[in-house]
Amino acid sequence: MVPDQVEPLLERFAGDAGRTVPLVALSAHGSLALGDYQAGRSDIDLVAVVAAPISAAQREQLQSVHAALIRDEGLADKLHCAYMVRAELPDLARSHVTWAHGQLLERPVSPVTRRELPLGGLPLAGPAPAELVPLVTDEELTDFIRGDLRDFWLPATGRSRLWLRDIWVDLGLLTLARASVTLQDGRLITKREALEVLAGLDAPAEVVHDIYRRRYEAHQPTSQAWRIRRARLARAFVRAGIERILQAPPGAG
């Protein structure tokens, strides 16, 4: 079920996008599809399957569609959408036109999202994701997750200033927890479930509570002293966790 807070936004977006590109299907993934959506805090992650490549003129129109949504609709600044060409769906490496962080860019749709869509994607228009998106193999999923930890997150733990920001603390710990579960048994878990997993991984309890509070409770100011301490704890935990995973044989989690 689509939460009431976002239903008008999604209805308008589906209509506007459908008049701009040859829309085959529109689906949600992430917290919106998995039942962990928090209005104003969670992203609204969408995938649109289109019948043909998007032209330059259509790109300009899409830019206008998203800009108008942000101007007129609450929560639209959190909306991200990848436009995947139907004929290109089997190609994991293919980049797709994507609206994210206030701009149009091109990037692949990750194997994690591709695994999630057929299993738990929320259809908003057209056929369900399982009818369109090929399911990635366990090997493809494992290779991607280990590579993401090795090539992106591990180097990021060496950049201390990044971890003064809430987003890096949150995504760093939650990504590690979700990766641990997926590599161990193939399951994809929500961010709420990831917070529970972190306790079993001996994550710093005060950092886990800080993430929970900001995601699920009323906002409270964060002192600079706590940001510095939190950054140190988060970086050390994430680095150690990634090193543990990468030292284990693939499939061991």
Key terms for this structure?
globular, six-stranded mixed sheet, 253 residues, 15% strand, 2 domains, Beta Polymerase, domain 2, alpha+beta
Instruction: Give the SSE order as H and E letters.
Output: HEHEHEEEHEHHHHH
Arithmetic mean pLDDT: 94
Q: How many strands, which pairing sense, and closed or not: the largest β-sheet?
A: 6 strands, mixed
Based on DSSP secondary structure assignment, what is the total number of beta strands?
6
Textual characterization of the structure:
The chain is of the alpha+beta class and 253 residues long. It folds into two domains: 7-131, Beta Polymerase, domain 2, CATH 3.30.460; 138-247. The protein has helices at 7-18, 31-34, 56-72, 111-120, 138-156, 166-185, 191-200, 205-216, 224-247; strands at 23-29, 44-50, 79-85, 95-100, 103-108, 122-125. Strands 5-4-3-2-1-6 form a six-stranded mixed beta sheet, with helices on both faces. Strand 2, helix 3 (56-72) and strand 3 form a beta-alpha-beta unit. The protein is globular. The mean pLDDT is 94.
